Predict the structure.
Amino acid sequence: MSVGIDDISFYTSNYYLDLKSLADVHNIEKDKFYQGIGQEKMGIVAADEDVVTMAANAALPLLKDVDPHSISTVMFATETGIDQSKAAGIFVHGLLGLPNRCRVVELKQACYSATAAIQMACAMVARDPARKILVIAADIARYDLNSSGEATQGCGAAAMLISANPRLLKIHPESGNYTEDVMDFWRPNYRSTALVDGKYSTKIYLKSLKQAWLHYQDVGGVEFEQIDHLCYHLPFTRMAEKSQSQLARVTKTGRDAEQLNAMIEPSLSYNRLIGNSYTASMYIGLISLLDNAKEDLSGKRVGFFSYGSGCVAEFFTGTVVDGYEEHLHRDLHSKLLNNRRELSYPEYLDLYHFEYPTDGGEHQFPEQTQGQFRLAGINQHKRIYNAR
């Protein structure tokens, strides 16, 4: 029996800022962003959007033809939590109308925790193959204005159904891990924006990739030459190229630069248009690979490197299942991206500076998102969500 991803979809905000607008404001060439970090646009959440609404919107297509009673667990991975106690996934559970006999938990470890959720979900399905696990990763990447991280902001959610005999991707059991206590990126509870030591974080990322790969080899993983495509965690798209170069050096591969680029290029398309989505980014990269690869991926092995600052990293692989294309949501994703509205720089600032009231009063938020679910308001410190 195989276990893996049976269905997968993503969602992002209806608004974006073209990084050309940011470049114009700072009087620099747009290619500093377009080419330098490989980003063209960044998703910007509306006032009535958060990780819950994006998560529910991402998961909705997966439930269309699934018996909700077959879902035994919801695992919500995020580093943009909305409550210090209540799991954001419980709000999603309610919005999606999932059964009461379904456990829900929230996981956090920077951008890594969705991978932990998937590995746990695979073990749970192996124990009870009749059940499915809903894994959702959703985040909003925010940095200070005029900081080095501002151009790497973004938002998005990826939802996955983990099941026995999956229709999209069989996940192999071998995985390599690496953990080290470092301070390359962090966000204290009292801050709404993250702090990052960019150069140090890149250094730790690449070190973790090497160490996770070596551990993966020690536990019986396949050789680099047996991997057809790779999906990396993408704080910015150019990071995938740095990672490929690092892994090529470590493995002493005989593949040339063109071949190495072909392994990652299809996985980068959506990230360029969305920006960083933290826990969701690598899995939006997988969706991009499945949706945009020009070749038939059936039987191809995909490598995954998941990295969460602070830091925890993991390398594992999966094999694409024959007939996977029949179960993609390619048209839905294309429509979502094509129907977004570009923000002017002043409009971006308005949304950036929007803050949720903290006085405990009754507040209603303007209807801005076009998604199925929205954050309608806050009353007595309680978030109120609506379904259209």
Notes: The chain has a mean pLDDT of 97. The two ends are 39 Å apart (CA to CA). The chain is about 30% helix and 25% strand. The longest strand covers residues 154-164.
